[in-house]
Amino acid sequence: MVSWKSLDSVEKLEEIIALSSDPAIDGVAIFKHSTRCSISSISLKRFETDYTANPKVPIYFLDLLRYRPISNLVATTFDVEHESPQLLIIKNGKCILHESHMEIRADMLNVKSA
Fold first, then answer.
1. Top CATH class, 5-109
2. Spacing of C-alpha 63 from chain mean position
3. What span, in angstroms and rounded, lies between the C-alpha atoms of 67 and 56?
4. Taking 80 as the threshold, does the pLDDT of residue 113 lie above it?
5. Is the distance from CB of 94 to CB of 78 less than 8 angstroms?
6. Most C-beta atoms within 10 A of its C-beta, which of 15, 20, 81, 101?
7. Strand-pair category, 5-6 with 28-33
C-alpha cells in the first residue's frame, strides 16, 4: 500500500525541495494525477499494484485538477513540461528523473543517491 503524502500547497513543495537534500534519503517522488483522465487512472492503478515501499523515497500525491497552480509551479520549479499523469523524482532540489503516461513504473523509486 502506498503511503501517499498530499502535495497541496506551496509550503509542501518547499518541504519536498528541502527534504530532497537530506542525505538519508535517495530522492522524493511526486505523482501528478488527473482524476478526469482514464490513462492517468490506469497508470495510477498499475503504479499502486506494483509499488513496494521504499522508506528512502517519500512519495507525494498531487491532484492536479484540484491544485492546478501547484502543478504549474512543479513544472516551472523543476523545469519539466507539464504532463498527466507524471512521476518525478527530486534530489538536491532538482528533478533527476521523470516519466509520464504509461512509462510510469513503480521501480522508478529504486533510485540511489549520487
1. alpha beta
2. 11
3. 26
4. no
5. yes
6. 20
7. unpaired
